[in-house]
Structure formats: C-alpha cells, structure tokens
Amino acid sequence: MKKLILALLITLSCGNLFSQWTVQQFNPDYAAVHFVPGTNVGYAVGNYYSLIRKSTDGGLTWNNLLNGSTEYLVDLFFINQNTGWVVGYNGTILYTNNGGTSFITQTSGVTDGLFSVQFLDANTGYIATGVLGRVLKTTNAGTNWTQTTAAGAAGLYAAFFLTPNTGWVGSFGGAVYLTVNGGTNWTAQTCPAASTVNDIYFTDTQTGWCCASGKIFKTTNGGTNWIEQVSGSNSLFSIFFYNSSNGFACGDFGSLIKTTNGGTNWTPITINTSSTLLSISPLDAGNVVIAGFNGYFLKSTNAGSNWNILYGSSGGGISSIYFTTTSSGYAVNYLGYLFRTSNGGANWNPSQLTIDVASDVVFANTSTGWIAGNNTVLDGGDDPVTIKTTNGGTTWTQYNPPAIFASVVDMCFSGTSNGWILGTSATLNSSGAITNLCITTNGGINWANPFNFNENMRDLYFTSTTEGWACGDLGRVMKTNNGGLNWTQQTTPNGANLYSIYFLNSNQGYACGGGGTIIGTTNGGTTWNLLPSGTSLYLYSIYFGSSTNAVCVGEGGTRLRTTNAGASWTNSPDAVQLSFNTAFMVSPNNAYIGGDYGYIGNFGGIVGVNNNTNEIPNQSSLSQNYPNPFNPTTKIRFAIPQTILNKGLQPLVQLKVFDILGREVATLVNEQLKPGTYEVDWNGTNHSSGVYFYQLVTEQFSDTRKMILIK
User: Can you give the pTM of this predicted structure?
Assistant: First the structure.
C-alpha cells in the first residue's frame, strides 16, 4: 500500500471500430496501485501531474480519469469499488464516491506532502505527512481532518493501521511509532533502520514487517523489538503479506523477493525489467499485482509462484509516428526505442535502437525508412546519427550526417533518394541561433550542408524533391523551390513560435505553435491566415488526412480535430495533462498521436486483433472459426497462456491462412502478444471459394484447422 516518491494501460482493449480517442500505449511512472479486495476493480496513481487510472478487469485494461488536480499524486485507498481517497503534494486530498467519475477536493488543513493514506471503514482514515511527524485523521469520511503528531518524528512516509485505534507510522529518519488510541498518543519503537521506512505491514497486533533501503525488519511483539531479516543493495519500497508466512517485497532495479516462512528466508524472483517497482496490492487470495516505473504492471494469479508482465516498457516520450499502411506503423521515443505494430496499434512491440535519442521516423514506402536522432559522446555532447532500413524495419544500417548539429530537430524524405535533416547548430552566430539543413540525394548514405538558417527553425515539410517549407521561432515560415539550396521568408499573421508545418499540396498548408496558434494558406504561403484553434495552449504537431480532416496536438493533453479544413476545431483533451509531441493520419478518420511516457493514442482506427476476455488462459488453443462455412468474413479465436511469460517474455504469435495447395494467402497475426484470449477477423472477399487452412504457431504451440469459403 505504500509508495515512494522516488523521482519527484496501459493498453485499452481495442474494438473493431473506434468512435473516440483511445489509449493504445501508456507507460507512466506509477507511485501506487490499490485493488478493492475480492474484486477486479483497481486504481493507480503516478508521479505525473494528476494521473489517476482505473481498471475493472484485474489490471488487463485501464482508463485515465479526470480529477481536476494539477499536483503530483502519491497514494490512494478505496474501501469499495466506488469510494476512495487519493493524496499527494501540497496537502492534496481527492475523494470520489462514484468510482472515479468525479472527484471532490477535501481540505487537509496542511500544505505538507501526503505520502500514505488508509481507511479502516467508510468514516475512519489516516494520512501520514512529510512534515514534523504529522498524522491526519478523519472520523467523517474526510469532511474534516484533525492533526496528531508522532512525538519526535521527522517527516513520515509509511503508515499501517490494523484497527481504527492501533497503527504504526515510519519516518524518513528510520524510526517507527505506535499508537493504540487512534493517534492521540504515539510511542517510539526501536528499529535499527538507518534510512526512510518505506512501508509497514502487520498481519496481527504482534506480527509485522517494515522495509527500508535494502533491509527488511520483523517484529513478533507489536514493534517493541524489530529484527533485521534481509539486507541487500537495492532499496525496497513496498511489502505485503497474505498471512504470517507468505509475503513479498519489491524495490529498485526490478527487485522482487518472496518468503514462505515469515521472512526467515527470502527468495529473489527474476523479472525481465530493471525498472523500479513501488507498490503491491492484492485482489484476493491468489491474485496480487505490482506497479512501478515505466508503466510496469505485474500480476500473479497463483499467490506469487509465477508473475506475468502485463504492461511496461521504455517510458520515454514518443517523438514521432509513421504508418506505411493502415496496419503497419512505427514510433520512436526520446530514449532510443523503436515501437512497431502490424495490427493498427493493438500491440506495440519495443526494441532498443543504436540511437540514444530518436527524434524522427519517416518511410518512403513499406520497405524503406529512416530514423534520425543523436548519440551521446564521451565529452557529454551529442553527435547526429541516421539509420536506414530497406526491409521494413527488420534491420537498420547507420549513415551519419556531418557532425555540425547539436541535436537533430526534424527529418523529411521525398521518395527513396531525396531527404532533408534539420538540426540545431553546434556553433552560434552573433544572435545566438543557427539551424543547419543537410540534404541527401542518395537515400541518406551521404549528407551535405548547403544552407544554414540564422534563426531557430523547428520543422520542415517537402511536397516534392524541389518544393518545401520550414517553420520556427517568431512565426517564421521559409519556402524553397530548389530542394533546399535557397530559402525565402514568407509573411505570417503573428510572431508566435511555430513547431509543426504540413502541406497537402503546393497550395494548401498549415502550421501550429505557441499560444494555440494555427495558421493556414491556400496559395503556397503567399498569404497565411490565423485560424481559430479555441485554445491558448502550445500546439506541437499538426497533420491532415485529407483536405478537410486533420488533428493538432499539444500541451495539457490537447487533442484538436477539424473536419472543415481548419475553419473550426474540436478539443477532446486527455484526462491526464501530458504533452503530445507528434501526430500522424492514416486516413481522413484514422489518426495516431504520441506523447509523454510512451503515450500512443488513436482515433477512428480499425484493429483486427482483439483481446476479448478478462481471464488469462492456462494453455494455448486454437478454436474452430465461426461461421464455417462463411461468406465473406469469419472469426478465428485463439488463446495465449501466462506460462510462457514466467521469464518475463512475450511470445511471438503467428496466425496465417493457406490455400488447399499450401500457399500462404494471408498473415493475420505476426506479433508479440500478452497473455489472453484473442479474436481476429479474416475477410475472404478477394479470394475464391474453396477449402483453406489457418495455422497458429508460437514458441511452444502449433495447431492447424480447416475452414470453407463459399461464395
């Protein structure tokens, strides 16, 4: 139940057709998770402004909740599926009695950081604060909070109450304090912890544990004495016991340890992550979950014997998204990761690139693409780097532009040969700003530097090998008619910094930037007009899927859409106030956006593979398609078990269709899939009547079934 404030989903189940924004990937730093015992309803908060998420299926899917706060949220507690409290910085207490549909701000009476909250019933609750040993108590569900003080205590971080009267708190200084009269008086206990007590857990009035740094301490006399059980190099932040024998603790660098004898011995559990794990919460006697940094969410359905990584990856902000078809897409982030999907974003599979910072990804066709970014060098600076694929991202080859950039800003290609890179200069002029432009005419193998802008330019877009535009600070828009060798400044209606520019053709173009600025042109930039965005927040990316339909995204969760060429915009902001950095449209009504903490969202996409149950199967299976015979579509269901994931691995799953001669006619799935029961549609419109076979192959399973197409 405890969580550290260490540094100051998760995929939503996808239906076949979306009518609103959905989250396909989100990897925030979770601070705490709490599931209502005996249910599949749980909530999580994170070290990001106002992040509250909710799951109703045991953690398999999550929704972001609006809550009206702008503070860091640190801990939470729910007494049932609808009623709970969330606490955070600056004395923040949020209360809901409708399952998170809305939150009410309660008055704590302090400006302290609130680090631990627990309720014993619908009225009685306690909060440990980070200042002067203060403990807040309510007996009327939080309408009023009174203050008590654990005498001599420094700031408090951990708290655990066994009854409304009996509880313990742990301090930043390593001390533990006991109350047996509901906080009126506190007694200091002797605990040899030399650092912050991060969590406390008791199974009865005598038997309890606490964790601090890499140590666990146990008491069998209510805390009068604490005995060290385990010492390690990794800090432990959360501890939980099912009973006096079976328990877990988790912490830094993916640390997870388990005991079955009350802590006399602790066994490390190998998890395929080095991310910090911060919070443990049980669902029932067999199900327990753990949440941590980089969106990691672990679940065990057998009391911890095996663990399944449901979510988690690099938490870096998504810097660029590009789709080559309606199904196949790529995204890169600022930590040098590539994410790939072949099913419209139902699954995004990460891989580490040879680039420390990946700024942009573009493709000329389904095979040939480039990623640009920077590598950190020994002197602490950055060197620009590009990598190229000619096989759809299976392999990449590095070709570096001249080392004149301090950092790569943007990249654009027209065809497979002609490309441009924009970057901040490693040197400055008298005004302090130079932006370098490099050009390639051989697909990125070699780069030349024919032009330098004497200002900060932030984005560029080419409609052909000769015609292009660039935008930047102070409302500047520049145009070239000779492939970037020379540029001419155009007149724009205001001086707001511009961050993104997009042209549908030689005439129709748009740019967006600071203060909610959106400008448009219908004559190639000879004149630019200010368009009504309806927001004053910064806008970072604009993209058109047709001459009328577009998306524009920016800070504060801003997600703008237009269906009338920018004459008006509708904002559907995300509940979490994160920044969106990039947008891409596959079609007039199918958009993808990327932002902080690995966020990838979608509007209007069609996804062919659906995880359509809340249960994790025990074994692989391939079901008979239905209907069968069929015309022209049929559904194929298959199951991926959790046992494959005992080592934290996600299996590669392939589902293919073959004709009567054994020739492959369709690949329906070729992805690493999380455990679950999936359903995929196959459309035989473009195939002749006859007998077909569909085959499911994983690392540990293979099965083939027959189906009949009748027209």
Answer: 0.80
